Amino acid sequence: QVRLVESGGGLVQPGESLRLSCTVSGRIFSINDMAWYRQAPGKERELVAEIPRAGGTTFADSVKGRFSISRDDYRSSVYLQMNSLKNEDTAVYYCNVDKVITAGRQAIFDLWGQGTQVTVSS
């Protein structure tokens, strides 16, 4: 069974850092675009950062210069390094993959992780 497993959330103070990890479990042949979204209480889910298979990255304006995203296709993983965290970064962070090809050449679309809570508070 293919699923996304996230880790790395927690409680930090403003200005501190966290690194989120997300791994695609199962026997994988290839992974397409990978991304991190977040949803704060009472707000809609928003894109935080995206890293396509072909390369390049995209960031929400609110996190540019503070967050970075990277992927390790050998480990079927994507990471979100969050620096200089602010109170307004508090949210549940979700990993997303738009397409996975399994070792059996099955295509699976729009996979989501279970979410990991990030709380920034003094």
Span between termini: 40 Å
Spell the H/E element sequence: EEEEEEEEEEEE
Tally of strands: 12
Instruction: Assess the beta-strand content as a share of residues.
Output: over 45%
Structure class: mainly beta
Percent helix among the residues?
Answer: under 10%
Q: Over the alpha carbons, how many angstroms does the gyration radius reach? A: 14 Å
Rough outline: elongated
Q: How would a textbook summarize the main sheet?
A: 8 strands, mixed
Which regions contain 5 or more consecutive residues with pLDDT less than 50? none
Mean pLDDT across every amino acid position: 96
Give me the oligomer status.
single chain
In DSSP terms (H or I, runs of 4 or more residues), the helix count works out at: 0
Q: Secondary-structure map with pairings?
A:
Elements: E1 3-7, E2 10-12, E3 18-25, E4 28-31, E5 34-39, E6 46-51, E7 58-59, E8 67-72, E9 77-82, E10 91-102, E11 107-112, E12 116-120
Parallel strand pairs: 2-12
Antiparallel strand pairs: 1-3, 3-9, 4-10, 5-6, 5-10, 6-7, 8-9, 10-11, 10-12
Structure report:
This protein is mainly beta and 122 residues long. The chain is 0% helix and 57% strand. It is built from no helices and twelve strands. β10 and β11 form a beta hairpin.
Short summary of the structure?
The chain is an all-beta fold. It is built from no helices and twelve strands. Strand 8 and strand 9 form a beta hairpin.
Keywords:
about 120 residues, mainly beta, four-stranded antiparallel β-sheet, 12 strands, about 55% strand, elongated
